Amino acid sequence: MASYGIDFGTTNTAVVECLFLNNKMSATPLGEMNQPFPSLIALHPEKPSLFGMEVKKRRRQLKSEGYEVISSFKSILGNKEWSVTVGGLDYTAEDVTALFLSRVKKAVESKSNVPMTEAVISIPVDFQPEQRAALRRAALKAGIRARSFVSEPTAAYIYCQKEIAGASNVAVFDWGGGTLDVSILTAENGVIQELAVSGRRLGGNDIDETLARHFHARIMRTGIPKAFEDMTGTERDQIINQSEEAKKRLSTEDFAPILLMKYGGRKIARESVSLEEFQGLIAQKVEDAADVLRQAARKAHITIEQLDSILMVGGSCEMRPIIRRLEQIGGSRVYRPDNAQWVVAGGAAFLAEQRPVYKLQHDFGVLMSDGSLYPVFKAGQEIPCQSPEFSFGVVEDTTNAVFIFADGQKNELKRVLLPIKGFQYEGLRLKAFIDEDMIAHVFVYQSYNEKKGRSAEINQLSFAYCIE
Amino acid sequence: MKSNIALRSNVYINRTRRKTDPDFLAQVLDYKVLSEEYNERKEPVAPLSLLQREILRKPP
């Protein structure tokens, strides 16, 4: 039975089908035109919705045809205030995501024999509890049960762990269409821990536009000049799509021509770019990307020299200028898997097929008045799990019981204040559970009035993936 | 009664759920409770810490 992994990205969404048979794993990328699905939806008051590549290729034209083109809905998931009205219908970010995932599911199932009824979905390290819950609901509405979530860098590491075996400090340099995220992981004895994350809104789409503006300026050297912004939606779609193709071509060739039809008053416009020109055009962006790697290392309190491996994933890591730059920084420690854009989804699919046990990596509990930690859950506890009911008292005469939740290193994760009336020997109850989304839910209340309790959600816990 | 919001933890586990839980009582910092427990009882259930002795010496 095959399993699916979904890398639901801000700009592109990759799906990989994984099958483990006779001790051999096969991974099949599923997308559109050998590319991940662009994370785009176009809604129209009267016409059926469009998604993915069709929207990407004609997004500016579609706007002029009355479509509402929605992008980056991942970043607004869980934001209850965001909605868009099309044809008298209100769509929340969750609705848009559900619609998009349902179209992805349909497209995947048209290529695979196995229905995509469940999947492991990768998420950013800092994806908040409400975002995870909204994504789970959206997936379910689309007919996909999120079996579990996995952080994007961890998924990338899992997919490549054979190739970078022995590396304990790993930087996952994930450069996609819209964002760059660099995570520093440590991996020891099969336990993966995320130490630091750094990111920037900079991706392949910005590079495409830079290249498009370069081509546009060259075309406009002759005849009547026209500003890039003044071009029609169709014209801009055309030049940006051609620029993207040229960029891809430069990942394997030293020269890329483009051909534009009916562009800026010209019947035909031919242009080209060499690898060296391209490198010059995006030099600053490449340097900015390299800075994000340095920032992440600083946050993790390690030097670039202490990194054992720099794992390059995401579609934008196919560009030779960034490969060259990272190789200057990291030398032979840079590892670039084939099909970098499918790696995160591949790791998620691997986890879906292997069905690992998730275990809490550190104790999680309440910091008490003497500074000690009372563990509500102990390291090694399998997820999901539920605590018994604990009873606490306050050690002073006060109007608020202060519950401070912390990890095994006593790092404060959340503070919950429970209003009380003076000193109490006991009767302050605490219950907690960690759900399948790896979110700890804590609830404190007085024994005689559960309704007036206080609850909180905590998502900064670390987990180990144990494959039996 | 203090009305300010305490900035540090002021809770402690009471495993037995009883007034006489010795581990809990060893952490109590409230004068009234301490004086009831230690000045009025013949045999207190937990020995006083230095901090608790200090609190008992200086009534609010």
Structural description of this entry:
Chain A has ten helices and 29 strands. With 468 residues, chain A is an alpha+beta fold. In chain A, the strands form eight sheets. In chain A, strands 1, 2, 3, 4, 10 and 11 form a six-stranded mixed β-sheet that branches. A five-stranded mixed β-sheet of chain A has the order 14-13-12-17-18. The relative contact order of chain A is 0.12. In chain B, 35% of the residues lie in helices and 5% in strands. The relative contact order of chain B is 0.16. Classes of the chains: A alpha+beta (468), B mainly alpha (60). Chain A binds chain B through residues 366-371, 374, 390-404, 417, 422-423, 425-428, and chain B through 1-3, 5-15, 17-19, 21, 24, 27-30, 32-33. Strand 23 (390-394) of chain A pairs antiparallel with strand 1 (11-13) of chain B.
List the SSEs and their pairings:
The complex is a heterodimer of chains A (468) and B (60).
Chain A (H helix, E strand, L loop, with lengths): L2 E6 L3 E10 L2 E7 L6 E2 L1 E4 L6 E2 L1 H12 L3 E4 L11 E4 L2 E4 H17 L8 E6 L5 H13 L3 E7 H9 L8 E7 L4 E9 L2 E10 L3 H16 L13 H17 L5 E9 L2 E9 H7 L1 H17 L9 E5 L6 H11 L3 E2 L7 H12 L2 E4 L3 E4 L5 E5 L7 E2 L3 E5 L5 E8 L4 E8 L8 E7 L5 E7 L2 E10 L4 E4 L2
Parallel strand pairs in A: 1-10, 10-11, 12-17, 17-18
Antiparallel strand pairs in A: 1-2, 2-3, 2-4, 5-6, 5-7, 8-9, 12-13, 13-14, 15-16, 19-29, 20-21, 20-24, 22-26, 23-26, 24-25, 26-27, 27-28
Chain B lengths: L10 E3 L8 H4 L5 H9 L10 H8 L3
